[in-house]
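User: Here's a chain of 363 residues. Predict its fold as C-alpha cells.
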Amino acid sequence: MSTVDSGSAIGSLVERFSLKAFVESCLVLEEGVAALKDIELGMMAGAGILPGPFTRADEAGLDNMLEALERAASEWGEWFEPPLILRRLVAQGRLGRKSGQGFFPYPQPDEGEQRETVLLETRDDGVAIAWLNRPPANPLSPQLLRELGEVWSEVDGKVRALVIASSNPFTFSAGADIKEFTKMKPDQEGREMLESAHGLMRSMEASRTVTIASVNALAFGGGCELAMACDFRIAAFSASFGQPEINLGIIPGFGGTQRLPRLVGEGRALEMNLTGTPISGAEAYERGLATDVVPDHELFDTSLRWARKMAEQAPLAIERIKRVSGQGLEAEAQAFGEVFGSEDAKEGIGAFLGKRTPKFQGK
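Assistant: Prediction complete.
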C-alpha cells in the first residue's frame, strides 16, 4: 500500500478500505472463525483482493501496518484499532517478508548459488531449513528429489536439526510429478529414481541430524511420504495428508505402505491407502500421523522450536536411538554400551550432577 510504503498520511478511500479489510481478517483469525489460508483465499476469490490481506501486510511490513493502523484509529476511530495478533507478531520481531516471517514464513537462503527447486537456509543455532521451492504444487519431480538429496548430503551429520518446509503457503507437496514419471522407462529410470528416493529417506531415518516436516498445507502422495520419513511432523490445522495413488490405479511408491502403518496402525493405514481420502491436520494428530498440530500462523515458529530443542540433544544418542528403534533388545543393549562410553555421556551425566545445562559435541 502506497500510504504504508511512503509513510504519508492515510486519506484515500482505497487505503481506508484496505486497512479495514485487514483488521477484519485479523479479527476473524483471532476468533477462530477460519484458518489463515482460508481467510487469505476467501478474500482473494470472494472480495477480489489480490494479493490477500495477510500477504499484503507481510509485504508492507507488519511494523508499518501497526503504525498505519494507530494513525487510522486516532483519525477514524476504534474500528481501526490494531488487532492483538498484529501487536504480538511485531513484538516477536515477525515483521513480514523483510524479517523472514510474518503471517507467513519466507525463505532467507544462504548467500551464493542456490538450487532451483530446493533452497538451503542454515542458521547459527545448529538448525537448517530445506525449502521446497517449485510452486505452486512442489511436486516431487526427479529434479526436486535429486536436489533435495544434494541438500541432505550437505547437512547430514553437520547440522543438528533440519526443517523441511514449503516456500508456497498453500502447498507442502502435492505428490509425485506424474507427467515426469510417465516419460520414464519403468524398468530402468523409474526404478533408479525410486531407489534414490528410498535411499534418501532411509538415510534421514538413520541420521544423527533430526528431521522435522513443517506441513503447512497439502501433503499428498509423495509429499505425505516425505513427511513420514522425517522424525517429526508438525502440522497446521489447515494441513491435509493423503495417499491418493489408488485413484490413479497405482500404489504408494516412496514408503507409504510401510511407514504409514507404523504411525497410524494397520487398519487406519489400509483405509487411507485404499480409499485415497485425505485427512486434516487435526485428524492426523489424533491418529498419530502428526506429532503436533498448531494454528497456521504458528506453524513455522513451532517447527523451529522443535528443531532448536533437538539441536540441544546429544547427537550420538539421537543417532543410536533412531537406528535401533524396532530392532530389538539386543541392538538396544549394544547401542547403549557404545553411547555410555562417549564424551557426550560424560558431559550429560556431569551436567546433571552439577546442575547445569549440558553442551553436547557429538563425540
